[in-house]
Design brief:
Elements lengths: L2 H9 L2 H19 L6 H8 L3 H7 L3 H20 L9 H16 L2 H12 L5 H26 L4 H12 L1 H8 L15 H4 L2 H11 L3
């Protein structure tokens, strides 16, 4: 970090410093993995003292869980809700599922998912928190949309749709059978990032007419 950057970091206080630490810690965890990430490294890269770091996060485990909360926040801003994509319900669901797949096969998200899987046995709270933050939240959003637009049991339908449209490619990407998406997953690149025609067919075959 440059002297100017370190000075700005030292000038941060309270909630601003806490949020800055979280962004730095997110990068450290994704770059090194949980085991090799250290509070010393996070403090140094955040331009703050270990005392200040521990004042906000009493342990590396607590810091990691807080980073997962940040990831959830950033993810939901990118994902949005189905009605943000199209007025037609079937097309809205198609684009929502496609966007979910795009976000989940992005390199940074793939590394996060692998990290949580690696720590699942040692720190089960982290893997369950990640599942709730990403998968359960996405399913809840889709369930609410389906319940509003269709007369059906929305929860199992939402689970089925996400399983059909997202999980096959996600698993292949997690296992490095397919490459993760390198570029930041902006919404404009969605049609070229994922196979929307196939997702559209799966949605059409699953939703009631």
């Amino acid at each position: 970090m440059s002297p100017e950057g370190a000075t700005r970091s030292r000038q941060r206080r309270g909630a601003e410093l806490r949020r800055h630490i979280l962004f730095v810690a997110k990068d450290v965890f994704l770059e090194t993995g949980y085991e090799r990430a250290s509070m010393d490294t996070v403090a140094a890269r955040a331009g703050t003292s270990k005392r200040s770091l521990y004042a906000h996060f009493e342990s590396k485990d607590k810091l990691f869980l807080a980073v997962l909360d940040l990831i959830r926040e950033l993810y939901l801003v990118k994902l949005k809700t189905p009605d943000a994509y199209a007025g037609d319900p079937a097309e809205a669901v198609t684009l929502f599922c496609g966007r979910f797949l795009q976000l989940m096969t992005w390199e940074a998200q793939v590394r996060t998912c692998r990290l949580c899987i690696a720590e699942a046995e040692r720190l089960p709270g982290s893997s369950s928190a990640y599942f709730d933050a990403i998968f359960a939240t996405t399913q809840d959003i889709l369930t609410a949309y389906l319940a509003e637009h269709y007369t059906l049991d929305a929860a199992p339908l939402a689970e089925d749709l996400l399983s059909r449209t997202v999980l096959p490619r996600l698993f292949r990407t997690l296992l490095n059978v397919e490459d993760a998406l390198k570029d930041d997953p902006d919404e404009q690149s969605l049609p070229t990032a994922v196979d929307l025609p196939t997702i559209r067919q799966l949605v059409s075959a699953t939703l009631p007419t």
